[in-house]
Amino acid sequence: MKTPYVLPLLLALACLTGCARVAMAGGRAAQMQAQLKSHFAEADSNGDGRLTRDEARDHMPWVYRNFDAIDSANTGSLTIDQIQAYAVAQARSRKRGAQ
Hints:
The relative contact order is 0.08. The protein contains 5 helices and 2 strands. Helix content is 74%, strand content 4%. It has one domain: EF-hand (Recoverin, domain 1). The protein has a two-stranded antiparallel sheet with strand order 1-2. It has helices spanning 6-43, 53-59, 61-65, 67-70, 80-98; strands at residues 51-52, 77-78. With 99 residues, the protein is mainly alpha-helical.
């Protein structure tokens, strides 16, 4: 192999590795989102698109434990968007703390 081809080959390999990591992370995020939607639907016993504290207690213990923090508007119920936003904020906070 000629030396001039080594650097472009290494760069291409690095790019492919990075792309694979992004694809795997995206796949994991999609899987987690699907699980959240499934658990939310199971917990939402009256099907109104909102979880009360009682609905969360039996089916979503993490949401139940963090209910007051997630329900920052003090409405007494949570939407899936609120739960997702809180989970993302917590993940970012943990990531910043690890650095």
